[in-house]
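quick one if you have a minute, typing this from the bus. theres a chain ive been looking at and ive put its sequence and its fold in token form underneath. please have a look and point out which stretches look like helix strand or loop to you. anything you notice is useful, everything is just below.

***
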Amino acid sequence: MCYAVPTVGAIITSVAWSRTKNIKLWWLNLLLYGGSIFGFVDHFWNGELFAVSDNIARDLLLGVAITLAIFGIWAVMLIMSKFSTILNAYTSAKTS
């Protein structure tokens, strides 16, 4: 169930992005969906897609750790975009 936390984050950022059309939020959204899909595939592959462990708090804590790692990667990407013209082009593009 650890994939539930990044999935909720992805849904929230989808709603926020649909209102703001902020490209930086779009990148966070893609990263969160990537983490969610990875979790779904991993649990499906191991036959644990809807399995709930005895310690749900530990599963959710793992989901929080995964989501924090995604936020960390997003922050590094935004910081690097200040120094890289290629990344800056991707993080400052206009969306319609």
